[in-house]
Amino acid sequence: MRYLFIIQGEGRGHMTQALSLAVILRRQGHEIVQVLVGQTPHRQIPDFFFKQIHAPVTTFEAPHFSFTGNRVSLLQTILMNFLPSRLVAFNRSMQTIHKMIEQQRPDIIINFYEMLSGLTLKRYRIKIPMIGIGHQFLLLHKSYPYGRQLGIRGWLLRLHVWMSSQGCSRLLALSFYPLPDDERYSISVVPPLLREEIIESSPTSNEGFLLGYIINNAYASEIRAWSQAHPEQTIHIFWDSQEHPQTWQAEKNLTFHKIDDKLFLKFMQQCQGYITTAGFESVCEAMFLGKPLMLIPSHIEQQVNAFDAFSTGAGIISESFDFSRFINFIKENKFNNTAFHSWIAESDNKFAYLTHIKNGKNIYQQRIKLAFIQRTSHAGSA
């Protein structure tokens, strides 16, 4: 089978998911013929992705978040992405996506939560089956409790998830734990897509330092302030700042690193605990390695991820980089990741079955609906 990937490029999570799925599909004898990545002006696609995907990569301009200080501004995000210049750019992007699909003629398209994918399929009436993959698709699941009581922000988030699901015949919702499938919305619940390097990286150690990953560089000043007040605690932070060298010694005990896949994995294996803005993929990696988590969400999607991860006992949620509170948590708690390991072990079988066509025919019916928008009263704690 010939597969074409379309990936949201905001952060590194969707790209590492794509790398992991590519390995699974190739193990089954399939081919990745083209990869399309939605790029934003303030994010750079990390070098490790180009080196490891082993397929031609084409980028296009995609919608992205707008920040006010450390937090995402929902209003600014909406207004910015509907500027005439942005709409013209998105039109060019859909033309690029259509052109690549026409050139490669894949058997199946895999959409890693990129909204322009479905819009392109509908605009050009493309009949190739598309499968959507992402943790966000759990928000459409009838049994998923998080994100239901967040008012207009939650409604808009689910609307965005629904828009990103358009054109998909089946949604594969990545989850920290098993849930029944929701056939009403063509949702199959599947394990996270972890990189082989993570799965093969045991045993781990505790070298006493804290590790962090931030996609909003405005957090740097807050982290520096804490490290200056606590020189005894070593901290390593990964980011994608273009204004600093590959390795920046901000304080004697604080080092910032540009995103480096191998170095990040090494530090994840050795760290005492992991601090993150609650991006799904790196949370899963920390859980698999048994590393305690401090979750500091900067927008509503990460807030939902944080509530979900917190429910497993893997870490704490914080509104700031309160490392002192996190250190106390590490001393008093230990996360048992045995059930999570068992869930991850099901990945190959589930994805091999759910991302193929039987007898040359699409095994899924297109029936992703808008009805979830009306289910705002569904029970939930977040």
Describe the protein.
With 382 residues, the protein is an alpha/beta fold. It contains 14 helices and 16 strands. The chain has a seven-stranded parallel sheet with strand order 3-2-1-6-7-8-9, sandwiched between helices. Strands 12-13-11-10-14-15-16 form a seven-stranded mixed sheet, with helices on both faces. Strands 4-5 form a two-stranded antiparallel ribbon. Strand 12 and strand 13 form a beta hairpin. Helix 4 packs across helix 5 and helix 5 crosses helix 6. The longest helix has 21 residues. It is globular. 42% of the residues are buried. The C terminus is likely disordered.
What is the N-to-C succession of helices and strands? Answer: EHEHEEEHHEHEHEEHEHEEEHEHEHEHHH
Distance between the termini: 40 Å
Q: What summary fits the major beta sheet?
A: 7 strands, parallel
> What class would the helix/strand composition place it in?
alpha/beta
Mean pLDDT: 86
Query: Helicity level, as a percent range?
Result: 25-40%
Strand content: 15-25%
Strand order of the largest sheet: 3-2-1-6-7-8-9
Low-confidence stretches: 357-381
- In total, the number of strands is 16
Nearest-angstrom radius of gyration?
A: 20 Å
Shape: globular
Q: Total number of helical segments?
A: 14
